[in-house]
Amino acid sequence: MRVHDKRIYALNDKQSSKDAEDSRGPVIYWMSREQRVKDNWGLLYARELAGETRPLVVCFVMSPSFMCATFRQYDFMLRGLKEVADKLAEMGIPFALRIGGPDAEIVSLANDIGAGTVVTDFDPLRTSWSWQKKAARELKVPLIEVDGRNIVPARVVSDKQEYAARTIRPKIHRLLFEYLEDFPELIPQHVSPPDIPEPDWNAAYRAINVDRSIFPVDFPSGEKSAHIALDSFIKTRLINYAEKRNNPNAGATSRLSAYIQFGQLAPQRAALDVAATGAGDSQDMFLEELIVRRELSENFCLHNADYDSLSGAPEWAVATLDDHRDDQRLYLYTRDEFDKAETHSLLWNAAQNQMRRTGYMHGYMRMYWAKKILEWSPSPEQAVKTAMTLNDKYQLDGRSPNGYVGALWSIAGLHDRAWKKRPVYGSIRYMNERGCRRKFDVDEYISRWNIE
Ligand SMILES: Cc1cc2nc3c(=O)[nH]c(=O)nc-3n(C[C@H](O)[C@H](O)[C@H](O)COP(=O)(O)OP(=O)(O)OC[C@H]3O[C@@H](n4cnc5c(N)ncnc54)[C@H](O)[C@@H]3O)c2cc1C
C-alpha cells in the first residue's frame, strides 16, 4: 500500500533528476513532530522512496531550547526518542541524533551523506515551519512534507480558516472514508546505510538549555506506553466517556494528549481502534474530540498567523472584550500569583496545582481555569498571554495547536458564538464555580490537588 499522494506536499522545487547522483543518494526522514516508528506516514513515505536500493536514515535534531518548552517536556521527549532509536535499529534503519539549529543540522547531514531526498512532518506552528522554510531553501535536494498528524490532511480538508466545528465537520466527514485507512507495516531495511554515530543521550540531556526547575513527571513516555494507554482506555474507560468525560474526578478521559502531542501515537491509530469498538455515544463523542476538534485546531494554526495572541480571535470577540476592557475586576492577579496558585479560589488553585504536579489538567477544568484568568487579569491581552504561557510551561501536551485554540476559545470566543453579556467577559461564554458544582464533586477535586 502506498502513502496517499495528497498527504504529500513539496516544500521546495528542487528536483533530483533520474540520472543525477543525488537521486540514488540516501533518503533522510527528518523526524520532528511525529516521534514514532509505527503508524507514521512520513516514515512510511521515506521508506517507500528508499525502496530496496537507497538507504534510509532517520534524523531528529534537538534544538537546545524550543518554544518555551521546559525540562519536563524535554525529558518526556528524549525518553520517547530512545525507544524510537532502538526500534529503528532492530529494523536496520540508523537514527541520527543531532543537537543544534534544526535547519542547519539537517542541511549539514544531507550534505555529509549525499542525501537524495529529505522527507519531514507537517507542522502548522511557526518555529518548526520557519526551520522547514530555511532548510527548503538551503538543501540541494527535494524537501517533502507528509501530514502524519491529521487523519484528513490539513492542506486537503480546507484551504481557509474554518469558522467553527460545524463548518469543518462535514468537510472532514466527507473525506474520512478516503483517509481513515489502516497503516501498512514498516519494512525493515537491508541495504547498508551510511555510517551514523550512535545517539549520545547524555550529551542531549546536557545540551538542554531551558528552565530546569520544572521537574519531569512520573508519566510513562514512548510509543509502547502510548499503545498500552490506548488499549487500557478502550477496555476500561471508553464506555463511560459520554457520561463522565466532564467530571475531573472520574478519570474517564483517555489521557492520550501527551502521546499525541509528541507524536508517540497517531491519532489515526486511536480513531481506528475506537471506531472498531461500537461503543455508541461514547465512541461518537470521543471521535468528535479526537478528529473534528483536534483537526479544527490544526486548521486554525495553519491559516491564522496570529494563532497565539488576541489578534487571532474573531472580530466580534475582540470588540466585545474591548468594550469591557475597563470594567472593574473583583480580583486581580499577576502572572506569578497565577503560576504559584495563589488566588482566592481553592478550585482554581487546585486546577493549577494538578497541572504543575502532573503535567496534565483535566479538560473541563482547563476551560474554567482559562476563563477565570480572563476575569482576574488587567486586560484580555494579558489573560491570553498568561494562559498560553502557563499551559506551555507545565502541560506535557502544551505548545500545541490545541493549546492555543483552547486558550482563545475560552478567553476570546474562537470557534464559539456570542452569549449573554456580563462584566469583563462581554459576550464571551461565562463559567463559574456553581456550574462546576452541578457537574462534579468540587470539594473532592480541591482536596485531591490542594495538598502541600
Ligand atoms: C484552555 C485550554 C487549554 C488546552 N490546552 C491543550 C493543550 O495544550 N494540548 C492539547 O492537546 N489539548 C489542549 N486542550 C484541549 C483538551 O482540553 C485536551 O486535549 C484534553 O483535555 C486532553 O485530555 P485527554 O487526552 O484525556 O482528552 P480526551 O477527552 O480523551 O480526548 C482525546 C483527544 O482528543 C483531542 N481533544 C480533546 N478535547 C479537545 C478539544 N477541546 N480541542 C481539541 N482537541 C481535543 C486531544 O487530542 C485528546 O487527547 C485545551 C483546552 C483548553 C480549554
Characterise the protein shown here.
With 452 residues, the chain is α/β, with parallel strands linked by helices. It folds into three domains: 1-148, 3-Layer(aba) Sandwich (Rossmann fold); 149-184 and 222-303, Serine Threonine Protein Phosphatase 5, Tetratricopeptide repeat (Alpha Horseshoe), CATH 1.25.40; 310-449, Orthogonal Bundle (DNA Cyclobutane Dipyrimidine Photolyase, subunit A, domain 3), CATH 1.10.579. It contains 20 helices and six strands. A six-stranded mixed beta sheet has the order 1-6-5-2-3-4, with helices on both faces. It is globular. The termini are far apart. The relative contact order is 0.12. The model has no long low-confidence stretch (mean pLDDT 96). Bound molecules: flavin-adenine dinucleotide (FAD). Residues 245, 253-257, 260-261, 289-290, 293-294, 297, 363, 366-367, 370, 387, 391, 395, 397-398, 400, 402-403, 406-407, 409-410 line the site of flavin-adenine dinucleotide.
What's the CATH topology label of the largest domain?
Rossmann fold
Low confidence ranges: none
Helix content: 40-55%
SS-based class: alpha/beta
Strand content: 5-15%
Domain Photolyase/cryptochrome alpha/beta: 25-154
EC number: 4.1.99.3
Keywords: DNA damage, DNA repair, DNA-binding, FAD, Flavoprotein, Lyase
InterPro entries: Crypto/Photolyase_FAD-like_sf (IPR036134), Crypto/Photolyase_N_sf (IPR036155), DNA_photolyase_2 (IPR008148), DNA_photolyase_2_CS (IPR032673), DNA_photolyase_N (IPR006050), Photolyase_Class-2 (IPR052219), Rossmann-like_a/b/a_fold (IPR014729)
